[in-house]
Amino acid sequence: MTEIALSIEHLHKSYGDSTILNDLNLQVKEGEVVVVVGPSGCGKSTLLRCINGLEPIQSGEIQVNGQTIQQSGKDLLLLRQKIGMVFQHYALFPHLTVLENILLAPLKVQKRSRPEVEKEARALLERVGLLDKADRYPHQLSGGQKQRVAIVRALCMQPEILLFDEVTAALDPEMVREVLEVLIDLADQGKTMIVVTHEMAFARAVADRVIFIEAGVIREENTPEAFFESPKTERAKQFLQSFTYHRHRKK
């Protein structure tokens, strides 16, 4: 029986009088890739930040492998190490080499030995085709290369769940393909992932399940084939039609 890696129950998040997530419930199984889509401002990125403890919540509960995410304290810091997060903007330190960027957190936060971490980092860089860039600086890399380094940095913390927040949004189509190939490889390895994206082709290629959020509520969830071919709700149909319209306008 597949274990539940992430459980969210009755999650409520607001900023002042503005409700961002409204009684949201979600379970993610170990090894599952869940892609979250929806209109801008619907709460997708906020959901990831709540899962990682970067945003406080007003009510509800988030559990990672049965352990509740606390709002503060040492337990939160320890639990956050189990959740790797990759952002749209790579957040690499410009004064550190690629390898130094990757080693920083495992050495400083997890207190692991340098030989062990460096061996793992180099193996991961080789897997994503960037071993030859280990001694380069971020400004010497393309956008797709920076994003792959950011993914390796998250992986080197040995997280149980990986969160990806619009990691292809700032990339051109060729670079999107580079990152997509890495995520597909991670999915093939059985990594548990939650991916927020506006790239529908990307979502369809990598997802085991698609979650459609609007106004902080899950309106629909289904397999990628069912969601993209025959969405159940009118709102999801309108959302997908808007992407079709814009794609035709660009031609």
Explain the layout of strands and helices.
Blueprint: E1 4-15, E2 18-29, E3 33-37, H1 44-51, E4 59-64, E5 67-68, H2 74-80, E6 83-86, H3 98-108, H4 114-127, H5 143-155, E7 161-165, H6 173-188, E8 192-196, H7 200-206, E9 209-214, E10 217-222, H8 224-229, H9 234-250
Write a short abstract of this structure.
The protein is an alpha/beta fold and 251 residues long.
Task: Tell me what you see in this structure.
The chain is built from nine helices and ten strands. By secondary structure, the protein is α/β, with parallel strands linked by helices. The protein has a six-stranded mixed beta sheet, with helices on both faces. It has a four-stranded antiparallel beta sheet with strand order 2-1-4-5, covered by helices on one side. Mean pLDDT is 90; it is low at 245-251.
Give me the secondary-structure category: alpha/beta
SS strand fraction:
25-35%
Fraction of residues in helix: 25-40%
Q: What is the assembly state of the chains in this entry?
A: single chain
| SSE arrangement, N to C | EEEHEEHEHHHEHEHEEHH
Order of strands, widest sheet: 6-7-8-3-9-10
Radius of gyration: 18 Å
What separation lies between the terminal Cα atoms? 47 Å
What is the overall number of helices?
A: 9
Number of beta-strand segments:
10
On the 0-100 scale, what is the average pLDDT?
90
The geometry reads as globular
- Name the poorly predicted regions: 245-251
How many strands, what sense, and barrel or not for the largest sheet?
6 strands, mixed
